[in-house]
Design a protein that fits this description.
By secondary structure, the chain is α/β, with parallel strands linked by helices. 34% of the residues lie in helices and 16% in strands. It has 23 helices and 24 strands. It has a 6-stranded mixed sheet with strand order 7-19-20-21-18-22, sandwiched between helices. Strands 11-2-1-15-24 form a 5-stranded parallel sheet. It has a 4-stranded mixed sheet with strand order 14-13-12-16, with no helix packed on it. Helix 6 runs parallel beside helix 23 and helix 9 packs across helix 14. Bound molecules: ligand HUF.
């Protein structure tokens, strides 16, 4: 049972329980042999188990060393503890930090201490600052050995509030029926990030929300009815049939990804399974020595290839109706001819079409301007020659496209064919969940517990002066105020970086500005409508709406583009807000259009949609909130995406520091981009980089 719990703890911590993480492997290869890897992994997994069992209290060094059980392993356990701690696998978030027993007893007389400036108090900045604060305390002795006091962390935030793109807007529930008493808390609705995808043990937000802050939460019921443009529910059989066809198009198109290049960023060591795994080699040689001996053999592959994991072909199989994210599984794309596949799905083939008829996407895929959208449109139009697609089928297909555009915050014609789902395969399994009473409690909790962070609000940074060699000081200039620092962590959103009104001195190098240009940053907006009482089926959390193209009944794919994302998906978030409220998404081109459409027009259109479904008695809302993330000067959009010219390692390049300037944010994490948990993890990563710079490698 203990062993099982340890294995589970590693898996939930995004690690392979049976193999070294790439970074762990690099750290350990000079210290342990292949034969010792299993013992090491048992210790590591044991420490992770301790952590996840009670993340309110950090694992102390002694406790961690206790996982070794045998004195000969104490040194290794010590190193392992440092690695887990610095990399943010344990003791992150709002936990009581265990202070080392050998910490300095007296306040030191050191006058030296480093300053770290963290720009931005969204989830990445707060995650980073909180972890740096914890590391400063836990490494107090090491800092003293360096002749310093622990570093001080100062956060600079442009807005007057915390949370960034996590933003719970207060709603005035006074004219609405209160669904339940919030014990004096205000009623609020999420204007920004909202759903915690895969709320499961080990998901860092699960650790924060449930394990540490004990916030109430609500798991969304995944069943989602689709209403056609006339307000009638879509026949579920037809819905399924079209969804299969859409998924098949996605699968065929995914066959033309970056050819011969790794297409996925598999997190941690999930793609490097066998790295450093127990071999049958002699026990007394370190991993490095054994590898050198192997590399000297004539048939050995070049060292550069030895560390590459096996290529995994992951095929899109379905798209999540609540989040628009595509689920993948290992497989062979386009294994069967299109007509054969369509027949298998239950479609009747057009007259004269035989089962050996296939799509031919070769020519379209070769075009250098090809995007996910252009190739999908081609696939859909070729399928039209194989099966009869009705106008309703087109509306259904375009609803799925809108859903995909929602998760990418951009028209799918502006997505890289190779990179659009670079993160697929890294999600946790749990349910999609929302925090009851406001997601804002998470950034607030991070800022306050276990002790308040040092945050200066209303400090919009105008200029960052840094040292590209990393040895000198840095300066951060705000309008009224400048701060000298040894390290700067920028969590400035990609949209703001693209906009170019934050100056860098010296200018960022071309390898960085190129990526800022290549990665995409689009807009998803929301229309939030508060009512006196619910007129919808309150058992249902999500419903979708199919939209007509501009010229109704058109069978031309391009005519759906501007309409398909308008109010395409609705969330009944009354249970989380405490008042009757609906929230509609504006995705793809519709997200951009929202920026310059009047509130009244949007509310009128929303009401028209609702009346078609719920009848003519649907009242006007008592309050309406329209988000305009594109016009927000501290965001300039909603979240990042794989722009058409994207290169496979762009997210990693985005994360790479330049001298003493470090980067975090949802746009710096290719394994979980565009999400709140990704932002948080990127902050932990940046904290770990700064810690290594201050303390030296483990
Ligand atoms: O913008 P941030 O929150 O970015 P992040 O930390 O990467 O998290 O924080 C940056 C901070 C802000 O506080 C700015 O004010 C500040 O930096 N800043 C400056 C500055 N310029 C900026 N400070 C000082 N000086 C300057 N010059 C918009 C949106 C997002 C999501 C969803 C919906 C909408 C409408 C639904 C959703 C979701 C998720 C979801 C994305 C995350 C985002 C993260 C970034 N969602 N994520 N589930 N997102 O689809 O997991 O349901 O919100 O990735 O919050």
């Amino acid at each position: 049972d203990y062993a099982h719990q340890c294995i589970e703890a590693a898996e939930r911590s995004r690690m392979n329980p049976y193999a070294l993480h790439q970074d762990e492997y690099l750290m350990l290869r000079d210290h342990i042999s292949h034969a010792q890897v299993t013992t090491y992994l048992n210790i590591r997994n044991g420490i992770l188990r301790l952590w996840l069992n009670n993340p309110r209290i950090g694992v102390a060094r002694d406790e961690a060393i206790g996982c070794a059980k045998d004195v000969r392993w104490f040194d290794v356990a010590n190193v392992c503890y440092d690695w887990l701690l610095r990399r943010g696998y344990i003791n992150y978030g709002c936990c009581e930090v265990p202070l080392s027993k050998t910490r300095p007893k007296k306040p030191s007389l050191n006058r030296k201490r480093k300053t770290i400036a963290v720009i931005g108090a969204g989830l990445s900045g707060l995650g980073c600052a909180r972890h740096l604060d914890a590391l400063a305390k836990q490494y107090a002795r090491q800092f003293q050995e360096l002749g310093e006091d622990p570093p001080i962390v100062i956060m600079l935030e442009g807005r007057s509030r915390l949370g960034g793109r996590v933003y719970s807007r207060a709603v005035d529930g006074s004219r609405s029926q209160r669904l339940f008493d919030f014990k004096g808390k205000r009623h609020s609705v999420e204007a920004g990030g909202m759903i915690i995808t895969g709320f499961d043990r080990g998901q860092p937000l699960h650790v924060l929300v449930r394990g540490q802050m004990a916030l109430p939460y609500y798991a969304l019921k995944p069943e989602a009815i689709l209403y056609d443009a006339n307000g009638k529910p879509v026949d579920s059989h037809r819905d399924l049939l079209v969804e299969k066809l859409y998924n098949d198009c996605l699968e065929r198109v995914s066959d033309y990804k970056f050819k011969n290049e790794p297409t996925k960023l598999i997190e941690g060591n999930r793609g490097l399974m066998d790295e450093g795994k127990d071999g049958n080699s002699e026990g007394n040689k370190t991993i490095a020595q054994t590898e050198e001996a192997t590399a000297a053999l004539p048939q050995a592959p070049p060292v550069s290839q030895q560390s590459l994991g096996p290529r995994v072909d992951l095929v899109p199989v379905s798209t999540d109706r609540a989040t628009g994210r595509t689920h993948v599984e290992p497989g062979t794309p386009a294994a069967h001819k299109a007509a054969f596949k369509a027949k298998e799905m239950g479609w009747a083939l057009k007259e004269g079409v035989t089962v050996d008829r296939d799509l031919d996407l070769e020519a379209a895929a070769k075009d250098p301007t090809t995007t996910l959208g252009s190739l999908m449109d081609e696939a859909i139009s070729q399928y039209r020659e194989i099966v009869d697609l009705t106008p309703q089928d087109y509306r259904l297909i375009n609803w799925h496209i809108a859903n995909l555009e929602y998760s990418n915050a951009i028209n799918y014609n502006q997505l890289s064919l190779g990179g659009w789902d670079i993160d697929a395969g890294n999600e946790w399994e749990g349910k999609h969940t929302m925090v009851v009473g406001g997601y804002q409690d998470v950034p607030w909790g991070l800022s306050m517990s276990p002790s308040p962070l040092n945050i200066v609000k209303k400090s919009a940074v105008k200029k960052i002066t840094y040292d590209p060699d990393g040895k000198g000081r840095a300066r951060v200039d705000c309008e009224q105020y400048s701060l000298e620092a040894d390290y700067v962590v920028s969590t400035i959103p990609l949209g703001v970086l693209k906009h170019g009104n934050v100056e860098f001195d010296p200018p960022l190098p071309p390898w960085k500005t190129d990526v800022i240009g290549r990665l995409g940053f689009g807009i998803l907006n929301k229309i939030i409508l508060v009512y006196q009482e619910a007129f919808w089926d309150s058992n249902c959390d999500i419903f979708g709406v199919l939209r007509n193209p501009l010229s109704r009944h058109s069978l031309r794919q391009s005519e759906y583009t501007s309409q398909r994302g308008r109010f395409f998906q609705w969330f009944n978030v009354s249970n989380m807000s405490g008042v009757p409220v609906l929230l509609a998404l504006m995705a793809g081109d519709a997200g951009f259009d929202t920026e310059h459409t009047k509130n009244d027009d949007l509310v009128a259109e929303a009401t028209e949609v609702l009346r078609s479904i719920c009848g003519p008695k649907v009242p006007n809302p008592t309050q309406a909130i329209v988000t305009r993330w594109g016009s927000d000067k501290f965001a300039r959009g909603s979240y990042s995406s794989a722009g058409p010219g994207m290169k496979p390692d762009d997210y990693e390049t985005m994360a790479r520091p330049v001298g003493n300037l470090y980067f975090a944010g949802e746009h710096t994490i290719g394994t979980h981009p565009a999400t709140v948990h990704g932002a948080y993890l990127s902050g932990l990563r940046a904290a770990s980089e700064v810690a290594d710079a201050m303390l030296g490698p483990i």
